[in-house]
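Repro:
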Amino acid sequence: MPVDSELATLLEELNGPPLSEVPLELLREGSALPIEDPAAIADVVNRTLPTPVGDVPVRIYYPAQERGLPVLVYFHGGGFVLGNLESHDSLLRNVALGAECIVVSVDYRLAPEHPFPAAPEDALAAVKWIQAHATEIGGDPGRIIVGGDSAGGNLATGVALRLRDEGDTGLRGQLLIYPVTQLRPPLEGSMARNGEGYFLRTADMTWFEDMYLGDSDGNHPHASPLLMEDLGGLPPAFVMTAGFDPLLDQGRTYALRLMDAGNDCVYSHYAGAIHGFFGIPAEISRRAVAEACGWLTSAFERK
């Protein structure tokens, strides 16, 4: 199957110079992906969460004025180096409306200023605060899901694993959109096949990893959950991959390992998609968001 026709027309503008050749401040000034105009929503609130690792900025999306809604805690993508509350604003408005849930977008610390494990620590601290204070933000403490795309998917997996290891099984699920599950993986399979010409380059991934890991080797399970020996006892998962994504193999392998470990896992693959397509203004992306929202709705209601 070729690249989806709408996405293919965007590739020419997306395939710019290697990220390592662009000053970091310029990369952070603009979004690397086209975004839709923001949808109207009941309310959007910016605030900080006081946590043991410091104040963590968040943006909270309310699809309706009613209280007691389920909560999705979302971590944006961007290779642990890029992305912020603005980069995923349009997407998360649509998710809040589509899944009829409160979405808390977490503005975790970025590398290289804050290398590993700063981002995972922020992610875990934010989720624990929301678990303890969900009613304060109008949410239901019994219906919380963690999620994210790419690097954000990595952070969501880490939160689920760490809460499990601490004996906390209260999460309703984990929404993993083309997640990073292994840092510095072998340059083979989809890493080699999709490593050039499809927006995310393997060279860019190496740049992200060098910025994020610093002196770490990437083998710590909080950085590379695919290397975790025991993946049992985790909350239900929805894992989405894209056919022309270097991360395809590691996302699919993680989903299969979740299933093999006895977890409830839905695996969804978009053969004609590229990395970053979730939320791009294209029909294939709107279908993907709708599917993810459908899974969220079901997972929130599951006992």
